[in-house]
Amino acid sequence: MLVTLDHGNWGRSSMSMSLRTCSALSLILVFACTATNVLAAGDGLIPQQKWASTFVSDRGFVNTSQWIGTSYTPSSASNSLWWWKFEDYREEVTRELRWAKTHLGFKALRMFLHTTVYDGDGGKTLLASMEKFLDIAAANNISAGFVFFGDCWSATGASLSDPCKPVKGRHNGCWKMSPQAKDRTTVERFKPYVADVANKFKDDKRVLWWEVYNEPNDKLAPAGFSIQLRQAAYTWLKTAGVKQPVLSCWDDNNSTDTVNTHKYTSEMDDWSQIVYENPFIGGFVSEAGARWYQGYSAGSGSPLMVINWLVALRLRYANCKLANRPCTVDGHGVNFVPGVMVSWELMVGNSNCRWHGNTSDINPEPAIPWTGHLFPDGSPVSLTEAAALRNLTSGHSEFMYLNTSLWSGPSNWGDSYLTVYGGPVETLWTASLTEPMTDGVVEASIWIKEGSYKAGILLRQGWTAEATFSGYYVGVNIQTQMLTIERWSSKNSPVLGSVHLVERENGLILNGWNMLRVAIKGNYSAVWFNPSHADAFDKETGKPQLIQPLIITSDDDPQDQEEIASGGLGLVAAGGNMTVDYISLLPLSVLPFHVI
């Protein structure tokens, strides 16, 4: 396995050489290389036992460290009313939870219930649907936490007979508050709902936690109702004798057993400040981060940043244990590592949260989804993020190479990037591989500035006798917006395949992030550029389909095949700088389906 750390490689062109701008450690690969596997699940980093044996009702410590997952709504559902027709979604749930396990390694899912579903028949359907869901989840070694109430989005329109239809570009446009405005009459009205759910599942080991209230808004009419309901529901759950912890937003409050926070920022020191505000009861981030959305000036704490933060905390805490000394990060005591629901949701689907919360209707498909881990065909939005998540939950690294440029120091939690300085001629940055690259999947998130000429990846990179680059170049001509794969060799440099990105709804994004992915096997190559939700459906029939590469090609020149059968891995820029969020090399086995 090609595992490597990247410590300040040289960027080079045929004319000059220049130092890289950032030499951050890849924490994930640090851990993959250590003799003691710090990332292994159940690694004993936390001195307290798991909640099942230590949790007590007077707010004792709650160990959330193994709660790694995300929120889930089936991809074809648009809100939490889907529970009413569970059988319509059974196959979808079965398929998507299997993907959550195999593609992402998730151990937990955060599930939103709704008062309207309970009211439909006094809870009969809701309780039966929850039982069926937990059976499917348990078959995939996934546990669940359930949310009773929430004040997000629309206070009207929740209907069991007339499902809301999502509007293109409208973020979370069908999500319904629970309870709805018309039902916010008396707090006691909701006691049967909470009590019935609690009594059925209070001893169920498949349930990790109960979450009373998601983002309560005390200004909603009637004033003060949400906080009153939050406190009452917390009491009802305790009275019912639930064995699971009971949580609620925001942060530390009188209706939660552990600090429960949401974070959508790339300033990770702020995360630490909130999570560790009461270390005696532990902490949990029940919503965490989103990718840097096109057109915005900063990111929201991407999945890779969240993973980097968690891994850094685990390493710091492990080192403190070995040294038998108190542990702090940014001045905060670290006596535990929190669980995190990474990004808002599992599926890129009809919730429309692939668009940013401030986008307007009828916006085109985004280049890279704001939130969501899997497209409806099961393919990960990012193979790099998916592999990093599997590494986080299993302790096993599949990376042959990874550079995230994220800092490892405990006081440098902000985002950072690699920059390839593109001059008038093609400039090459090279990765420090321990062995030559042959076959594999390379993925990079790249920011291309307006006015640049060329940006891309060079696979099996080498040098010709004339001291020019050789290898397979896959990249974009910014002026023509043409994506090409080219053979660069001493003999000739033909274009092996191309596609015009102007024809794509979410084609090349200038001054924003784009995803470039290349799979190479022998003389065959496949190329993806900004794969999208729309690509998972046939344009004519609307039926689901596997997301296909934009280019599939083969190099049929035996002489050149031999010349560039193996080599290095590089990034190429010309006419302007290219910023890189991450670049990775993974085995072909990470592809969700056979391509080449």
Give me some keywords for this one.
eight-stranded parallel β-sheet; 21% helix; alpha/beta; 596 residues; 11 helices; eight-stranded antiparallel β-sheet
Word description of this protein:
- The chain is α/β, with parallel strands linked by helices and 596 residues long.
- Helix content is 21%, strand content 24%.
- The protein has helices spanning 27-33, 51-54, 86-104, 115-121, 124-139, 191-201, 225-240, 268-275, 303-323, 383-394, 558-563; strands at residues 10-13, 17-19, 68-71, 108-112, 143-150, 207-214, 246-247, 259-263, 283-288, 328-329, 332-333, 339-345, 401-403, 418-420, 427-430, 440-448, 454-463, 469-477, 482-488, 495-500, 513-521, 524-529, 551-554, 568-574, 578-586.
- The strands form four sheets. It has an eight-stranded antiparallel beta sheet with strand order 2-1-15-24-17-18-19-20, with no helix packed on it. The chain has an eight-stranded parallel beta sheet with strand order 7-6-5-4-3-12-9-8.
- α8 (268-275) links the parallel β8 (259-263) and β9.
- α4 crosses α5 and α6 runs parallel beside α7 (225-240).
